[in-house]
């Protein structure tokens, strides 16, 4: 299973990825989930290390992010697309950039499923169209509410829908309702 975390920029994709990573790795250590492989498919300098570093040392995290940030070139996109296509692991989460363009199309074409997260639900339709074009099964549509105070679950079937609040860098979001619901949905799919 190759699941793309996609949606417009500044919607919390990387924060969601980190929360999922914490939840699923904790379950993996208990023998309740397969090992999750995370692919950072955007050269924005926010790899998996970033969320952990920013919570301990925000100044260092920003400095390193600037050093790691690079251009989103066709060569980078092809390299990541090859990683997505050829990963031998059974459970993969791919954090893509926030633009609908040829580079993300190239990367996403090898995925099987998608989670769409957006700070503005009016922008979801374009991402649904892209996922349809690439034959990706959309398993969740989440509204990111930066200033909200609690998550809201709207429905679990056939698509997980709801809102997730306060996806802020450096904040532990692994205990959020929608992060845990999404982890449950993902794990049911790979059973």
Topology:
Layout (H helix, E strand, L loop, with lengths): L1 E5 L6 H17 L7 E5 L6 H9 L1 H11 L5 H13 L5 E5 L5 H7 L4 E6 L5 H10 L3 E9 L6 E4 L4 E6 L11 H13 L2
Parallel strand pairs: 1-3, 1-4, 2-3, 4-5, 5-7
Antiparallel strand pairs: 6-7
Helix pairs in contact: 1-7, 2-3, 4-5
What does this structure look like?
The chain is α/β, with parallel strands linked by helices and 191 residues long. The protein has one domain (2-189): Rossmann fold, CATH 3.40.50. Helices cover 42% and strands 21% of the residues. The protein has helices at residues 13-29, 48-56, 58-68, 74-86, 102-108, 124-133, 177-189, and strands at 2-6, 37-41, 92-96, 113-118, 137-145, 152-155, 160-165. The chain has a seven-stranded mixed β-sheet with strand order 2-3-1-4-5-7-6, with helices on both faces. Helix 1 (13-29) packs across helix 7 (177-189) and helix 2 packs antiparallel against helix 3 (58-68).
